[in-house]
Structure formats: structure tokens, C-alpha cells
Design goal:
Number of helices: 5
Strand content: 15-25%
Number of domains: 1
Structural class: alpha+beta
Distance between the termini: 59 Å
Length: about 325
């Protein structure tokens, strides 16, 4: 007569199988997350190589290499009010001025680490709750971006805003508005708008913190700038000097080594689809949710010479970061 399993033995076997299954699921989940991070890192490398190739190819043809950044995605929404030219006081989040998912804008939003609608997420004790804030271009800043070859694609409701001079903002310099769902930025946009004084752009806050990490300082430092966060004074240091607050740090950089402006590299960017760059389409980050902005972000360094009342501005390419605010060197450090 064969001996059958007892109830206790069956329960033990089932429990062991459950533990093994749980461990396997956790392992697979970890492998998927690790794979996504590696793809994300590879995308950043790919975009960096594409930019270098495009620059070199254009230089050989005696063309303006800066046209690579024509038609970048603006990370602000166009139904936000324009600000005073050169205003740096709105670096903390102003609701709807950044590409935030709300009932008002009905648009894909930036990741929670890059932007938030929470009023409490502002400069305090040396840090701000979000990496990107709102900065309004002065006339000299706008001219520098234009000279650099930048025109931008704007997202949002076309009927809710008007461009300077009374013209409808739903049409860019190309005179084209891409009809489509307001929930889909790729089909709800105007093409190639010109820069102007008072235009809102996304800028990297040097004092931004994500959790306890000084994310803003890390981004500036990864782009070769002397910006650090002091755990003793809870302030941002620029060139080794403590700054009074985030706005002071930003303005010190603006008239020094430069501040970082952020624009998305979408499918309408002139580089994408061109044989010189080798990018058939704009890569998207696999680590982002589908209801968030998933494109990679070009960082442009803007610096002024002079003072607030009278200055000239210049722009240069500074680097690329992913939609979570991580540059290539920052991601490499995480994966070590």
C-alpha cells in the first residue's frame, strides 16, 4: 500500500513553491528594471554620438551646425501667461507653466522628479522640490537662442492663448498647427515658433533636490560647472561661495558660467530623420510611464555678459539628460 502525503506535507510543499515563485518574480522584475536602465544609458550614448556626428558633418559642408536643434520640444505649455523679460523669480513651479499633467492642460506631463504642481515644492533650506523651473527670456536671451538656430515646438490648447502682437499662438512661424487630441502632445502642437522676450522656458534649478539628493547640483556638475550643495549650510555653492537662495545661485550662474535651459528632442527636431545624424526617430526612455514625457532632453547653456539692465547673451550645447533628470555620467555612476 502506497503512503499518501499528509495535509501538513502538502501545505509545506505549497508554501515552498510559493516562496520560489515569489523569488523568481522578484528576480525577473529586477532583470527588467536593470535592462531598462541599460537601454536608457544606451539611448543617451546614441543621442550624444548623433549630435557629434551631425556637428562634424555640417561643419564639413560649411553649414551652421547649430541647426541640429531646430524644432526642439518646449517643456512649457503655451497657455501659460508670458512673464516679464529676464524674470528669475518664478524658478519655483508656477502651476501649468511647465508641461504638467493637469485637467487644465490635458497634456503629457514631466516626471515627478522634474516637475510638480505642489505649491510647497519651492526653494527652502537650499533646495527646491523640482529640477526644472520657469525662466522668462530677456530680449538678449531670445536673440541668442535665435542666433543659435533654435526654434521650438509648443504643446497645449491652441485656442487659449495669443502670441505677442495679437497673433494666434496656435500657429508657429511655419503657419502650421497639427490638429489632434489635446491629450497627445505629438498631435497637438504648433510648429517652429520664434523666441521672444518674456517667453517661458524650462531651466534647471541649481538647488533642486530629489529626495535627499542634490539633483540640480549634480546636473550642473556633470556638465562641467562648479556647483555644489553644502550639507553644513544647506545652501548651493557656486565657485565655492555659498548662495543666499536658489534664485541667487541661478543669477550668479547666469552672469558667470551659465544656466542650463532644457528642451526635448522629439521627432520634429531637425536632427531626427536626417541621414547625417543617423537617428530615424527620437528615442524614448523605457523607464518612464506612458502618461509622462518620455523624450530625452537637450541642455543648452545660456550666459550673459553685463547686468540685468544692459547685457548680451550667448548659447552653447551643454549635454543631454533623460526624462528623469539624469545625464550620461550620472547614469554611469548609478550602474557601477
Amino acid at each position: 500500500m502506497k503512503k499518501a502525503f499528509t495535509l501538513i506535507e502538502l501545505v509545506i510543499v505549497i508554501a515552498i513553491l510559493g516562496i520560489i515563485t515569489t523569488l523568481a518574480i522578484q528576480k525577473l522584475s529586477g532583470l527588467k528594471e536593470d535592462s531598462q536602465k541599460k537601454v536608457n544609458l544606451a539611448n543617451l550614448k546614441r543621442i550624444g554620438a548623433a549630435i557629434e556626428t551631425y556637428y562634424a558633418a555640417n561643419a564639413m559642408e560649411n553649414e551652421r551646425a547649430s541647426t541640429i536643434f531646430n524644432r526642439l520640444d518646449s517643456l512649457t505649455v503655451w497657455d501659460a501667461p508670458d512673464g516679464a523679460p529676464g524674470d528669475t523669480s518664478k524658478l519655483r513651479i508656477v502651476r501649468d507653466s511647465l508641461l504638467v499633467y493637469t485637467n487644465q492642460t490635458e497634456n503629457l506631463g514631466l516626471s515627478s522628479s522634474l516637475a510638480s504642481t505642489a505649491a510647497a515644492n519651492q526653494y527652502s533650506q537650499g533646495g527646491v522640490g523640482t529640477v526644472l523651473g520657469t525662466f522668462y527670456l530677456s530680449a538678449a536671451d531670445a536673440q541668442a537662442l535665435t542666433d543659435f538656430g533654435l526654434k521650438y515646438v509648443m504643446r497645449g490648447y491652441p485656442e487659449n492663448s495669443a502670441a505677442p502682437g495679437g497673433a494666434y499662438a496656435s500657429y508657429g512661424d511655419d503657419g502650421v498647427y497639427a490638429q489632434g487630441s489635446a491629450n497627445n502632445p505629438d498631435t497637438c502642437s504648433c510648429l517652429a515658433r520664434t523666441n521672444y522676450a518674456g517667453m517661458a522656458v524650462a531651466a534647471v534649478n541649481p538647488g533642486a533636490t530629489v529626495g535627499r539628493e542634490p539633483a540640480g547640483c549634480d546636473i550642473y556638475r556633470s556638465c562641467g560647472q562648479d556647483v555644489a550643495y553644502s550639507g553644513k549650510t544647506f545652501r548651493v555653492m557656486v565657485g565655492g561661495v555659498d548662495q543666499a537662495d536658489n534664485q541667487a545661485a541661478f543669477e550668479t550662474l547666469l552672469y558667470g558660467s551659465g544656466v542650463l535651459l532644457a528642451f526635448g528632442i522629439g521627432d520634429r527636431c531637425e536632427m531626427v530623420g536626417g541621414s547625417l545624424a543617423g537617428l530615424d526617430s527620437a528615442p524614448v526612455s523605457p523607464t518612464m510611464k506612458k502618461d509622462e514625457y518620455r523624450r530625452y532632453i537637450a541642455l543648452l547653456r545660456l550666459r550673459r555678459s553685463g547686468d540685468a539692465s544692459s547685457h548680451t547673451s550667448s548659447v552653447e550645447f551643454a549635454g543631454v539628460m533623460d526624462p528623469e533628470g539624469k545625464t550620461l555620467s550620472m547614469l554611469r555612476a548609478e550602474l557601477r
